[in-house]
Amino acid sequence: MTLAVVILTHNEERHIARALTSVAEIATEVFVIDSFSSDRTVELARAAGATVLQNKFINYAKQFQWGLDNAPITATWVMRLDADEIIESDLARRINAELPGLPTDVVGINLKRKHIFQGRWIRHGGRYPLLLLRIWRRGHGRIENRWMDEHMLLWGGRTVTFEGGFSDHNLNDLTFFTEKHNKYATREAIDVVNQRRQLFPRDTDLPTKGSRQAAIKRWVKETLYNNIPYQISATAYFLYRMIIQLGFLDGKEGLVYHTLQGFWYRFLVGAKVSELEAAIHDLKDPTAIRGELRRLTGLAIDP
Predict the structure, then answer these.
(1) CA-CA 20 to 30 A from 189: which of 124, 157, 289, 302?
(2) Which tens digit of pLDDT belongs to each residue from 168-203?
(3) What pTM did the predictor assign?
(4) Sequence spans of domains, the chain
(5) CATH 3.40.50.300 fits 3-169, yes or no
């Protein structure tokens, strides 16, 4: 078995060594795609044996695909890992034991990610398990061309799911969390506006050959949720997570998390979509619309 791990970074000195340690027993190649960090991220990654490539960041999808296209990957399998994620020991053992023996028609592996927030595992509110396609045979996958909520697209076979610990555990504070989600909200708002106006290419096919859970969520969001006034949809979604999906069982940490990620963030996305739509309401030319969106958001929005 050979496995290449690809990690995107920007000022991740707090997480990168931990992430690299978690894959040390399973990775035969590790590539860190860095967007010109100003801290010790690159130094720490190289010290841990990773190959570091640097590229200007536009969005997560373009950066990750750039990594797949430019890193000298030779391994049979590829894993996508975020810098603040961890492959726990039980999952590492399973990967080592079962990956070499998978049938040739298996081209992708879903992992069950759990979210750790303020030291607590958020088990409810629809947050566990999140089935994410994170391992695939080289040459059988690419990342979606989207500004937000990008998934891997597969071809040539089927997927299986591995049990085991796979954690998203960011160690930064609430200021970092809210600033990051503010940026996420802008990118997602761009995707929603583009869905309505078709201003530039984006992948629209549901990633059904990867995580079916992700495909269903995508369909619900883009077919139903995005067509409801955000003042109603964001409130209804929060109540659904807290009551129907038992988010209240996640304690005080869960209340903070579900309120910020399940209500504030969704409300913010809707408000930003409304703001952007108002700004471009009188524009008809797609080039002029893209230019105004670029001016408003500071994002490199091109056709």
Answers:
(1) 124
(2) 999 999 999 999 999 999 999 999 999 999 898 887
(3) 0.93
(4) 3-169, 174-297
(5) no
